[in-house]
Write a structure and sequence with these properties.
6-stranded mixed sheet, 17 helices, about 15% strand, 4-stranded parallel sheet, alpha/beta, Rossmann fold, about 525 residues, elongated
């Protein structure tokens, strides 16, 4: 495609700008924020994971509200001098607001013209804010972005306490105060106690307990993703099926904003025709490339080992974990955007995170050396034939690999590590050409459903622990249901049996026009 000088682009770095970037239409979300939060005068925190569109949302809110309200959009990203003392905080904000008023409401600027005193900075700041809110013909709103940079400072917590006190007096004594205060960051400011040093616990008094929970779903729906693709298609005329492409992007991302944009950037830069296969390949490249989002995820795994362990249990042991408010590791996962709460159960938030986390733990495992040795031996052993994966052969070879390498492992080993080892085995075969997606299966946590994408074809596998013939029959019915949904007729069932003897032979199951290849891994079933 030939580019024009002023052509718009997809953007995954920094806030999106109207007219410059292709953007999802979030007008319905903004209308909800105005109706449910702005108009009632609520104070709230937009706390979402990294690169979740918080800054873009604040900018869109400013544009929407600026005619009816006096809106100050502030950021703490480069405001480190504010945190030296209470005076620095109050005086720094006074100067910033003074400059803004001279531009947007010069008739009110003199209210902020006098420097804050060092003796009583808090009182002086409260007085000028009350004067502004009393004299302004418009209600006053303050938005503060990047508050994560401030949460370690006692000065900032005192500032929040001051805003809280003004809010309470507004409610009880009708004293002028900001109509709304909107904070944005990854951390939920209401839970600042988790970041306070032990010696400060005695004086902690919930400085932001007047903020209401911000429950709006900020992820993009397929219909919302389609609005951005429609804008792009109007410029480039690729002939894409917008609805199908939007659904496929959502399938991988569950609408995580930066993931949506990143996939679109990869397809656009490759000048592809925007097919389903292009989306699959873009996801593969995104997972293999550098990303601040993934770097941040791995950093948090290293900082919070309990969080990493819970994530591993959710993925590979398929545990059913009930959400409990206040459990540190669960709250971290939700705060970072890696977990989601599904009907009271904790789950990984989307398939891209699932796959990246799987790859991360695979890379850490000792099994890499074992896998590498076997992959060299079997390099030309028929895993791929005429551009198609020979999935049945892959499962047979994996079975042999387990018996050769793990026959001395204990009975609990397979439930802890079996699925992780298989994904490492599979990744060694498809890496660089295909990718896989681990499905979310919240109705039965003892199963792991995996879809493999390889050169435009899909292969559906179900990984499960053997728990008897009846449950095995249920697994067959489940995989058939999934095959129907994906318009496929062949599936694969990999069962792990922890005992020393296999409960049955591997088999081919023909049922209702579907073919299921079942491989049973009894890795300890070897000759003594």
């Amino acid at each position: 495609m030939e580019r024009t000088k002023c052509e718009k682009h997809f953007n995954a770095q920094g806030p999106c700008i109207t007219g410059r970037d292709y953007m999802v239409d979030i007008s319905a979300k903004l209308d909800t924020i105005v109706k449910d939060y702005i108009e009632p005068g609520k104070y709230f925190v937009i706390n979402r994971g990294r690169q979740y569109g918080k800054t873009t949302t604040l900018a869109a809110l400013w544009r929407l509200l600026k005619d009816e309200y006096l809106v100050f959009d502030l950021s703490f990203e480069a405001a480190t001098d504010y945190f030296k003392s209470e005076w620095h905080m109050c005086e720094g904000l006074r100067r910033t607001l003074y400059r803004r008023l001279k531009e947007e409401a010069p008739e009110l600027a003199d209210i902020f013209g006098k420097e804050i005193s060092e003796g009583f900075p808090r009182d002086d700041f409260i007085d000028i804010i009350r004067s502004l809110c009393k004299q302004s013909p418009k209600k006053v709103i303050v938005t503060i972005d990047e508050v994560d940079r401030a949460t370690d400072y006692t000065v900032f917590r005192n500032f929040l306490a001051m805003l809280r006190d003004m809010y309470i007096e507004r409610s009880t004594r009708n004293t002028p105060a900001f109509h709304n205060v909107i904070l944005a960051g990854v951390h939920d400011i209401r839970n600042l106690k988790k970041k306070i040093r032990p010696e400060e616990q005695a004086t902690y008094n919930s400085p932001w307990n007047i903020a209401v929970p911000f429950t709006l779903d900020m992820s993009f729906s397929p219909a919302e993703i389609a609005t951005m693709l429609t804008d792009y298609e109007n410029d480039h005329h690729t002939g894409m099926d917008i609805s199908k492409i939007a659904e496929r992007i959502y399938y991988y991302t569950s609408g995580y904003p930066v993931m949506v944009s990143s996939i679109c950037i990869i397809i656009d830069k490759g000048k592809h025709s925007w097919t389903i296969e292009d989306v699959d390949n873009a996801v593969r490249d995104f997972l293999a490339g550098d990303s601040l989002l993934f770097d941040d995820m791995i950093k948090n795994f290293n900082i919070y080992p309990g969080f990493a362990e819970l994530t591993k249990r959710l993925l590979f042991q398929q545990e059913e974990v009930t959400y409990e408010d206040g459990v540190y590791e669960m709250d971290l996962g939700l705060m970072f955007g890696i977990f989601k709460n599904v009907s009271g159960k904790i789950d990984i938030s989307n398939k891209i995170f699932r796959t990246k986390i799987c790859n991360y733990f695979i890379a850490l495992e000792e099994m890499k050396s074992r896998l590498g040795r076997y992959m060299c031996i079997w390099e030309n052993s028929g895993f791929v034939t005429n551009g198609e994966l020979n999935m049945r052969h892959i499962l047979e070879r994996f079975n042999a690999f387990m018996k050769a390498e793990y026959r001395n492992s204990d009975e609990d080993f397979i439930e802890r590590e079996g699925r992780l080892i298989f994904l490492g085995f599979l990744r060694g075969i498809i890496n660089g050409t295909g990718n896989y997606a681990v499905e979310s299966e919240t109705s039965n946590y003892m199963r792991m459903d995996v879809t493999v994408f390889y050169l435009g074809k899909e292969y559906v596998l179900e990984l499960k622990i053997w728990h008897g013939e009846k449950k095995n029959d249920n697994a067959v019915d489940q995989i058939i249901k999934y095959l129907k949904a994906r318009s496929l007729t062949t599936g694969y069932l990999l069962s792990f049996a922890a005992g020393k003897q296999s409960p049955k032979e591997s088999q081919i199951i023909e049922k209702d026009g579907f073919t299921i290849y079942e491989e049973i891994v009894a890795y300890r079933a070897v000759e003594e």
